[in-house]
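Anyone able to model this chain together with manganese (II) ion?
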Amino acid sequence: METLSIGQEIVAACERLGRHSDDPDGLTVAYLGAAHRAVAADLKEEMAGAGLAVTVDAIGNVIGRRSCGRPGARTLITGSHFDTVRNGGRFDGRLGIVLPIALARHLNETGERLPFDLEIIAFAEEEGLRFASTFLGSSPLVGQFDASVLERTDAAGVRLADAMRDAGLDPAGIAGLRRDPGTVLGYYEVHIEQGPVLLAAGEALGVVTSIAGGVRHSCRVTGSAGHAGTVPMRLRHDAGTAAAEMVLALEERCSADPSATVVGTAGRFEVVRGATNVIPGECQFTIDLRGAADGPRDLALADVLRSCREIAARRGVLFESELTMNVPATPCTPAWVDALAAAVASLGRPAHRMPSGAGHDAMMMGRALPMAMLFVRCGNGGVSHSPHETMTAADAGQAAAATLAFWRGRGTAARDVPAKAQE
Ligand code: HGY
Ligand code: MN
Ligand code: MN
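re: yes, here you go
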């Protein structure tokens, strides 16, 4: 396989998909918005052009299937998400969709048959941007979809269930998306690293060993709005400064964590109906807290929420929080990690094994299926969730070659079990 040219094909496909956005000045693709539908339409075309049998499921995942021609063969599922964060990068998620499509096209040209059926899934939602829900695409496939999120509303007050119906999707069909693990070999995902580790190590590829678990809360602080000029400082119940002290408590607790693997972020922070000359009456912010292991992460969360309540009591404001995501740390399947490391090594480079600080569909799929992930070097200092996210065609080509080597070895995979089930 001529790796540079397939790498150029892959990068070009990510650039093409990146032209659809909800924002004129950055890449933002929210679930079921106009840009999301345009990307889905492009993906259907790209999959059909690679000879795949294309379907769209009840949640909006775009699925391309390539049969190996052997009745009863099991399926290897690969893919990633095509929604983005606000002002995100062109490779986050998309790389893991367009790379397998390019390989399917290559296999058509060479006539090579894989020893299993291949399913490439473009997951419709993973980031949680529009409905503060995450993994909407992958969770139904492993029986982890939380039907209560159908009642969630977006910033315009549109219910998730209604947004789905408006897009011609059927919420009632979600329950039927669960895959029978007996028919699936496992799940494999290629993703840009979204960090600086491979760049610093001078490596193009990384073999993921485990994926950090994440918990998210939406928080609301309610104080007393008032005139910025007439209320003495000692009489204020300022929701904005109370929330700011809570966010600093989050930063302080995570920075001091003894495990040194806990990270905390308040990515959204907003004074509701704020105005320059009004003391904030209500402030909303989010907590995103992660760790390589669930124990330290959960201890940190409990401490942070306790601090928020103490700060609220001292300042005479009300603190409320809603859990919006809780996904456990997920180890990759050791036998699959070793097989992927061998595939990478077959290219002539030692496999660089590493944990993932970012969350991925693989952590959801890995809850029911054998799972492995391949990371690809992220340029520009490893920046991601940013328009400055970048990668090279050469590295994309290396990832394609390692993926093909890995796939060829999967047909003989014993009936592996997910890492969790191995404990
Ligand atoms: O937040 C994450 O780690 C992923 O980008 N959804
Ligand atoms: Mn992301
Ligand atoms: Mn991603």
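The first helix runs from residue 3 to 17.
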